[in-house]
Amino acid sequence: MELVKVEGLCVDVEYLIMGPLENNVYIISDGVGTFVVDPSARAEMIVEALAGRELDAIVLTHGHWDHTGAAAELREITGAPVIASAKEASSIQVPTDTGTSRIAKSCTVDRMVSSGDIIRVGDMEWKVIETPGHTPGSLCLFCIPQFGKHKQGLPVLVSGDTLFAGATGRTDFEGGSEEEMAASIKRLASLPDDTAVLPGHNALTTIGSERRRVFARFGSE
Fold first, then answer.
1. What is the CB-side half-sphere exposure of residue 216 using CA atoms within 13 A?
2. What pLDDT does residue 7 have?
3. I need a labelling partner for 122 at 20 to 30 A (CA). Which of 56, 87, 97, 151 fits?
4. What burial class does residue 63 get, using C-beta atoms within 10 Å of its C-beta: 0-12 exposed, 13-18 middle, 19+ buried?
5. Could you say which DSSP state residue 158 is in?
6. Alpha carbon 53 to chain centroid distance?
7. Looking at the predicted structure, is the pLDDT value of residue 5 above 90?
8. CA angle 46-174-184, nearest 5°?
């Protein structure tokens, strides 16, 4: 399985495409600290991709099974704490049927966060942006070059299943809401155009690229 490296960002980003729904599993680092986003499957392969780096955190953008499938095992192997939205923590720790075809595996959440909170890993600072719509507790993470490794690199948004290249996440699962998704997209539309977007599935994009393709549909261009 190929480890893809992303160039030109304010932090070092690599990702694996893993699991039956081809999730993007991100490894993000600044050379001092490292965290993994949404480990979907095969914890041992994620550890191999870390190449000896200590894992400081596991961040879950939401609780669907394809984003949390290897979280508990990765936590057990590495000792890294799991971070998730306070609104999503209970469904991650005690999963229920959300209509997504599978029930997620239970995983302990060590730290619960809300909008405006800062997740510090190494010298990086990531602002938490709650983006309900796909699930009630979906979150995104935003980092600007000032708090990254490469001061000339692009700002970064980890968007989970809220924003994709040309689309938003589905709102027809249990707990989804089209109205909340519209409000979340409006919130993301305030970010700079050059922000690189790292979605949970499919191709990477930018805020500027989605301004006409997605935001305009919600009146948030």
1. 7
2. 98
3. 87
4. buried
5. E
6. 20
7. yes
8. 75
Owner of token pair 């989970």: 160
Cα(93)–Cα(215) distance, integer angstroms: 33
Quick one: tokens of 150?
């490469």
pLDDT, tens digit, 9 for 90 and up, residues 170-198: 999 999 999 999 999 999 999 999 999 99
Q: What are phi and psi of 34, to 5 degrees?
A: -140, 140
Look up residue 199 and give its two tokens. Answer: 């979605």
CA 132/CA 138 separation, integer angstroms: 5
Residue 59 structure tokens: 């961040």
**Residue 221: per-residue pLDDT:** 66
Q: Are 89 and 95 in contact (CB under 8 A)?
A: no
Of all helices (H) and strands (E), which one includes residue 159?
strand 156-160
Which residue type is seen at 191? L
> Residue 213 corresponds to which tokens in the numbers above?
């393709």
Cβ contacts of 57 within 8 Å, gap of 6 or more = 33, 35, 36, 80, 81, 82, 83, 119, 121
Q: Would you mind telling me the total number of residues written for the chain in this entry? A: 221
The pLDDT of 106-128, averaged and rounded, is 98
Instruction: Give the Å distances, CA to CA, from 85 to 21, 30, 31, 73.
Output: 23, 23, 26, 20
CA distance 128 to 93: 20
